[in-house]
Amino acid sequence: MPREGDRVTDRSTLDLSSRDPDWWRQAVVYQVYPRSFADADGDGLGDLRGITRRLTHLAALGVDALWLSPFYPSELADGGYDVADPRDVDPRLGTLDDFDALVAEAHRLGLKVIVDIVPNHSSHQHVWFQEALHAGPGSAARDRYVFRDGRGEHGELPPSDWQSVFGGSAWKRVPDGQWYLHLFAPEQPDLNWENQEVRADYRTTLRFWSDRGVDGFRIDVAHALVKDLSEPLRDLGTHASGGEEALAGLPPGTHPLYDRDDVHEIYRDWRKILDAYRPPRMAVAEAWVPGARRALYARPDELGQAFNFEYLEAGWDAGELRQVITDSLATARAAGASATWVLSNHDVVRHASRLMLPPGTDLNAWLLADGRAPAVDEAAGLRRARAATLLMLALPGSAYVYQGEELGLPEVADLPTAVLQDPIWEQTGHVRKGRDGCRVPLPWTTAGPSYGFGPGGAWLPQPSGFAAYAVSAQDGVEGSTLELYRTALRLRRKLLAGEELTWAADAPDGVLRFDRGEGWRCVTNLSGAAVPLPAGEVLLSSAPLEDGRLGPDTTVWLGR
To answer: What pLDDT does residue 237 have?
Structure first.
């Protein structure tokens, strides 16, 4: 098996899916958060050359593709999702030549490359927004964004009660008295997608990266582009807050800011561009909307796939998970798409910690308590995370893996408030701690100023306990989480067949059991006691069996 540092030059026997234009339907995609993956120049910030040097880790892991979170010019008001130029590289992270070298090396290793596109908003440093500020009210430059006069006798009140996802009003006033809309941070002004220049510019962006060899796109906040901006703007009351909860109780497609029916026209237009390439470029929507509405984004004539957040948000409960899996497969099937599965990403508490918290735990309150109320047993959390991983990888569809979960990393919940970078912390007046705990740079070695992340320190402090999770500490170690992932991904590639599963009718309470075709089955014990194993050859287990029985918080794959 290839190990960390090996030059993997031929995956032809492993990566048969790379020859298939539908490779993404059951791919394993590894999310790279560039600033936290690997630092080549020692400035404490991850960069493209650092990623390129570590691509052999992904090839040896056995994933099909890497998804790069934003690497564009940005002042990092929102971790890179405030984009000043969507067709360039932040100079702190590298150059376009570095990007081209990364793509070339990834393709040499048999890896696809997916990049983030952030179409709902730009950075306030974007040349367009600077032009809008100088051009003044009523100008063509301001029409690219959402500017409005304020309410009140002197326009001193926001144009509506709309709220930012990060907290507070979604409107910010500029010196000439007008207000602009920002559904996220004030440094992220929303673009006006009724403006044809905006639409044309994003067509150019899709072609720009596709021409550079990118294989697909992850579309940030895909459900928010089209808005009802007809006058007078309507107040929303309890529906004014950001996020999926804002949609509750409103007829589908009628919220003025989110999930409007007209947004699908944009993605049908994009699909024509993506399909003009050979092979066609894939796309996946980040759309925080109910399943039936999410399926619309995943239709073959639109983006083709959409993230399944119901699965990520499900508790460690057999009945709940079975229902979510069943519904998710049905939703994807209805759309003509494949299902997607994800346990962690750059926006949520890592699942090695989250899955151990009692149902109904307020995650923000837990973070504010530095992860001590309640305390999480890291060993128990890792056991449950490993079981959850094997369950996810056995499901039909695409699995999205967040960097570091192959090492079993827990959430760094006790970051001092003085080091927090997430704008949520300041935007909410220190009420919400934010997402930095899942973005702490990766440990590659057991020693050094940043555990091998780079030759210097790291932009967020790493806890001393990270040494035990380092790649070098797990590489080649039987039973380690890294080796579990490598083995699981190698087996998965051999076992995959079709996009269906069949639930067992006689599974004990608290146990999930399903067959994948005629070849293999998955059994996950979510109960508190060991259970008998059904017949079959044990191919892989997330934890040692207990006298031939499947212990709690354990998943096993069985050959039939």
So the answer is: 86
Rounded to 5 degrees, what angle do the CA atoms 70, 71, 75 make? 90
Q: What type of residue is 31?
A: Q
Sheet holding 537-541, edge to edge: 502-503, 511-516, 520-525, 554-559, 537-541
Distance in angstroms (rounded) separating the CA atoms of residues 506 and 521: 14
CA dihedral of residues 491, 497, 503, 506 (deg, nearest 10): -60
- Annotation marks residue 201 as catalytic: no
- Specify whether the CB–CB gap between 183 and 190 falls below 8 A: yes
Structure tokens at 69: 């979170």
- 3-state DSSP assignment of residue 106: helix
For residue 440, give the nearest of 421, 424, 468 by alpha carbon. 421
**Which residue of the set 78, 286, 406, 515 is catalytic?**
286
Compute CA distances 87 → 40, 118, 205, 434, whole Å.
22, 11, 6, 28
Instruction: Please say if the pLDDT value at position 15 is more than 50.
Output: no
State the Cα–Cα distance between residues 43 and 46, nearest whole angstrom.
8
Spell out where 136-204 has E strands. Answer: 147-148, 171-173, 179-181
Measured distance CA(441)–CA(422) in Å, rounded:
14
Residue 286 annotated among the catalytic residues of the structure: yes
Contacts of residue 5, Cβ cutoff 8 Å, sequence gap at least 6:
56
Instruction: State the burial class of residue 176 (Cβ atoms within 10 Å of its Cβ: 0-12, 13-18, 19+).
Output: exposed
Q: Which amino acid is it at 337?
A: A
pLDDT of residue 498: 87
The structure tokens 């059991």 sit at 513
Contact 403, 429 (CB under 8 A): no
The predicted structure's pLDDT at residue 6? 37
Distance CA 457, CA 79 (A): 18
Rounded-to-integer distance, Cα 522 and Cα 540, Å: 10
Give the tens place of pLDDT for each residue, 327-345. Answer: 999 999 999 999 999 999 9
Query: Could you report the per-residue pLDDT of 60-76, keeping only the tens digit for each?
Result: 999 999 999 999 999 99
For the cut 60, the answer to whether the pLDDT of residue 14 exceeds it is no
The Cα 470–Cα 194 span in angstroms is 48
Show the tokens assigned to 318: 């057999």
What's the pTM?
0.94
- Least Cα distance to 542 among 560, 528, 558 occurs for 558
In this structure, which amino acid lies at residue 374? P
- Burial profile 44-71: b = 16 or more Cβ within 10 angstroms, e = fewer: bbbbbbbbbebbbbbbbbbbbbbbbbbb
Residue tagged active-site, from 78, 82, 161, 220: 220
Residue type at 291 in one-letter notation = G
537-541/216-219 β-pairing: unpaired
Assign 244 a pLDDT band (cuts: 50, 70, 90).
low
